[in-house]
Write the structure tokens for this entry.
Amino acid sequence: MDVASCLPVRGDRIHPVGDQAAAGNVEAIPVDRGQFVPDRKRDDEIAMKNRQRTPCRDQAAVLAARECRDGALDLAGVPYVGSGVSGSAIGMDKVVARELCDAQGLPSVRWIAFDAASRTNGALSARHIAAELAFPVFVKPANGGSSVGVTRVMGPSGLAAAIEEAFACDTRIIVEQGVDAAREIECAVLGNERPEPSVLGEIVPSREFYDYAAKYLEDSTELKIPAPLEPELAQTIRAHAVSAFRALGLAGLARVDFLLDPRGGQVYLNEVNTLPGFTSISMFPKLWEASGLSFPRLVTRLVELALARWEESRPLRSSWKPA
Ligand SMILES: Nc1ncnc2c1ncn2[C@@H]1O[C@H](COP(=O)(O)OP(=O)(O)O)[C@@H](O)[C@H]1O
Ligand SMILES: [Mg+2]
């Protein structure tokens, strides 16, 4: 079945399935194609239109809305593409995701997380950061995306502004050891219980790092597929991508991003994106195309995975009465 050709288009009404729908408890939901298949680009377009206001809040709202949508669809018994509520929320949270990945022994740069209380109780200080990490460091909101609120800090004097910027986007922030001139390697993962990694891709931004401008405002970023890497290293990174997918309890799809130190060859897990860009020019479909899965077949596979996950959850007890 070529599912891509039967996806609903804007304004169509799809009919939810499952017990709730069968019982007539749920009404048909109007959808557009962007809602049916995850599309970070589309979400980012919404964020960009609003960026004169508060870009990170708007983006966070779009992504938080997705977690609510997952929950609403779970309650309604409607299958959907991608991770469930917990996987989506954990994947979005750089601190929680990192704790889980670290616990699995996945390689990470040194990092420190701060909450809002740390600003007043003395835990957050430039001296503490400088004692724990070497500059440059990266300061980021715990929840965010598109590099919004992310700053590369070259020395202690730049910390205050970067911390302010990250706290403008979230109530928790993470400060990470920077990898100098890092190579950015990405792996697309597809599956439920048995996730599979794609070939690897490399992002080569023309700016100092892959910031908002490099992602959306300029056209100078180069993609290399497959990433030029020793086969053994590529295999290790692909295995790490699958381990991260499992560690966070993800489903359907994710893009797992790595930083590679060009000097020592050490690789670090940077982040997991449970809603990777999904336009025809995005890395996720391109990596699968290079792995032998065309865009229509990829969409079909995603819908099959969504249906398989939904089928699996159907027999689960959703109510209980004491004997
Ligand atoms: N520890 C780091 N060392 C070097 N570069 C980094 C580091 N963390 C982030 N970056 C750069 O910042 C970009 C955005 O950071 P990332 O954590 O991926 O945030 P986002 O979720 O906003 O994409 C990365 O693609 C990379 O270019
Ligand atoms: Mg990123």
